[in-house]
Amino acid sequence: MTECRRRAVVYAVVLGLGLGFRATPTLAQSNDAARTAARALGAAGLEAYWADDFTTADEKLDRAYRMFATPTLGLWSARARVRRGLWVEAAAKRR
Questions:
Q1: How far apart are CA 1 and CA 52, in angstroms?
Q2: For residue 95, with 0-12 CB atoms within 10 Å meaning exposed, 13-18 middle and 19 or more buried, which class applies?
Q3: What is the pLDDT of residues 42-57, one digit of tens each?
Q4: DSSP assignment, residue 19?
Q5: What is the distance between the terminal CA atoms of the chain, rounded to a whole angstrom?
Q6: Which terminus of the chain, N or C, has less C-beta within 10 A?
Q7: Angle, nearest 10°, between helix axes 25-50 and 71-83?
Q8: Greater pLDDT, 42 or 32
Q9: Model confidence over 62-71: pLDDT tens digits?
């Protein structure tokens, strides 16, 4: 995969986190810290994924998903698990 495509995927994840749930201003402010931390973990997880370090990618993406559950983080976490051979765990991530 080209560097341009990799960056597009990282930006898509970051954008997905930026468009997260905002029901009320108070809730949005409390979620800002979680969103920021999840964004950093997600970006680090994707960098590890593209470096073929799927164990680190799985750990970081899963932690990011647990902090701020977005479909893109769940997808990339599941992909890292597939690359590790953890098929059942990857299938469970879709829930």
A1: 12
A2: exposed
A3: 999 999 999 999 999 9
A4: T
A5: 28
A6: C
A7: 30
A8: 42
A9: 999 998 888 9
Residue 85, by phi and psi: left (phi above 0), alpha (psi -120 to 50) or beta? left
Instruction: Identify the band that residue 37 occupies on the pLDDT scale cut at 50, 70 and 90.
Output: confident
SS (H, E, C) 59-79: HHHHHHHHHCCCHHHHHHHHH
The rounded distance, in Å, linking the Cα atoms of 27 and 92 is 28
Number of domains in the chain: 1
Q: Which residue has the tokens 């970081």?
A: 60
23 DSSP 8-state letter: S
The parent domain of residue 72 ranges over 3-92
In whole angstroms, give the CA distance from residue 72 to residue 80.
12
- Does pLDDT of 21 surpass 50? no
Of 50, 53, 52, 80, nearest to 64 by C-alpha is 80
Other Cβ atoms within 10 Å of 24 Cβ, number: 8
